[in-house]
Amino acid sequence: MITEPIGTLNVNRPVLAIEGLTVSFDGFKAVDDLNLYVDRNEVHVVIGPNGAGKTTLLDLICGKTQATAGSIQFKGRELTKMSEHQIVHAGVGRKFQTPSIYEALTVFENLEMSFPRGRGVFGALLFKRTPDVIDRVRQVAADIFLTDYLDLTADLLSHGQKQWLEIGMLLMQEPELLMLDEPVAGMSVSEREKTAELLARISKGRSVVVIEHDMEFVKSIASKVTVLHQGKLLAAGSMEAVQSNPKVIEVYLGH
Amino acid sequence: MNFVSEKLIGGRQGAINLLVLCALLVVVFPLALDPFRLNMIGKYLSYAFVAVGLVLCWGYGGILSLGQGVFFGLGGYCMAMFLKLEASDPISTRIQTTPGIPDFMDWNQITELPAIWLPFQSLPLTFLLVIGVPVLLAFIVGVAMFKRRVGDVYFSIVTQAIAAILAILIIGSQGLTGGVNGITDLKTMLGWDIRTDEARLTLYFVCVALLIACILFGRFVLTSKLGRLLVAMRDKEERVRFSGYDVANFKVFVFCAAAGISAIGGAMFTLQVGFMSPSFVGIVPSIEMVIYAAVGGRMSLLGAVYGTLLVNYGKTYFSETVPELWLFLMGGLFIGVVMYFPKGLAGLYDSHGKKWLARLTSRKAARITVKAKLSGMEAAK
């Protein structure tokens, strides 16, 4: 399929191209023949009622779940054949639904852990906290509003701060595709606003896929919205187009 | 220099703790105990290697191996095989049907030294195999389990099965291993009689030195990024995996490290006690070794040593006085530690011992000596 030589990546081609993606658990199709494209600099929000397959979709992209059929192309590389850590190395970062941080470690150590160096056994054994690591950690900590908490053990952070910390851990990896599963769940109003602002900042130069239920928040961040329903694509487009789509209205309000 | 003081010694507190242990092992015990009791401490200390290994792989790595006796035993057997060959020279075995081979082989109608015994004619090769064989086995088991993401209790059960299998295998192949009696009647190492009091004293100090070296290695691992990764993996394995790490590799590493450390202990056991038998390989000894680490504190390398010494002292004391009670006490101890002191002795020291020490040192006389010591340390810097 790739006709141009490797290295001259077509700017117009989507960063992430999902085609015909299907996963079936004992006959139940959690994701069913799904097509989805994500461009650079795009904040792509996936919405849908419970059980629509949103989280499964992220699981498939990051390699946590194996696809039954279909392809996931990331910058021309097929992700369905790669192991989880290879997918991360390729440039995909994923935040889990419940904040998933290392509570026994400090904020600094949490961020440092995701610094993309010393990922092998002996690399980790001989890893040194050089100035570039410290600079990078401080820079990311400033991005996620945690500069004053670097030496704090992570379990002492508030719920919202833990969410930011996990986003920060992803930013340390400098991913080109960032996937966030309900990033503002359990956040206060002011924390939500700050998170929206954070997402706007970090989506520059990369692609972001967000799963979210909070429609106000979706409105404030989304450049494109995809609606899933029972594993299938129901609608895709701008927030306004999706909101006025009769099928979407029926799924959300019909039952 | 900074690296050494920060990472290996663990700052001033770490240095003091290590010095206290060294003083106890190097000065107090050799001066206070008769050769028989000191040799016994040496035997306990060889178990402490296993406990130190368990701190790494269980305490920090979250991998509970119930088969560490396998690695202890393999290390011990490798050492014993060399010593047995040396003890079986043609002159001292001239009454055998086939002189020059270990006595138990002769009893089993074996007329030629089996091929797997050949490498143990060389001491350097033996030293290499003492660590190499157990680490290789740990590597194979580790890769087979962790790459398939077998973890938690399933891994513990598999390791326990391996311990049972190896013990049965050793007992079953009498001609090769000496069977249930093990490899006994070990006499010399390169002509040096290991049974004399002087030799045992020397071996005791070698054992202490190696144990301290293993503790320092453990500190090096735990203070590196790998150590933090182990803690991170124990709590949030998925997060580590999706941060770009191949989690299995780190588990294999720490499991192999624990195996290697245990094996050194096994070899020191053979040298100090003078024999090796399947009773140190199977399930029961493996679980006892876990209890040592649990009592000492599974998050503390030094605590593991104290735990081993204490439990073994208790074992010896009670089995000399009320032998029938010992097993119940051991079980009760384990339950007690798990339920009430999950951090073991080291945890008790952190929560109570430090306060008590602080109160002690706040007394006037003590204060002066501490000050003198501290200024001495400052000057030494």
Note down, in words, how this protein is organized.
The complex is a heterodimer of chains A (255) and B (381). Chain A has a 6-stranded mixed sheet with strand order 6-7-8-3-9-10, sandwiched between helices. Chain A has 255 residues and is of the alpha/beta class. Helix content of chain A is 35%, strand content 24%. Chain A has helices at 54-62, 84-90, 107-113, 121-125, 131-143, 159-172, 189-202, 215-221, 239-243, 246-253; strands at residues 16-25, 28-38, 43-47, 69-74, 77-78, 92-95, 177-181, 207-211, 224-229, 232-237. Chain A has one domain (16-253): P-loop containing nucleotide triphosphate hydrolases (Rossmann fold), CATH 3.40.50.300. Chain B has 2 domains: 16-342, no CATH class; 346-381. Chain B is mainly α and 381 residues long. The mean pLDDT of chain B is 91. Chain B has helices spanning 2-8, 11-32, 35-60, 68-87, 103-107, 123-146, 152-172, 174-177, 197-223, 225-235, 237-241, 247-273, 283-296, 301-321, 326-340, 344-362, 364-380, and strands at residues 188-189, 192-193. Chain B is 75% helix and 1% strand. Chain B has a two-stranded antiparallel sheet with strand order 1-2. The interface between A and B is medium-sized, with 32 and 22 residues.
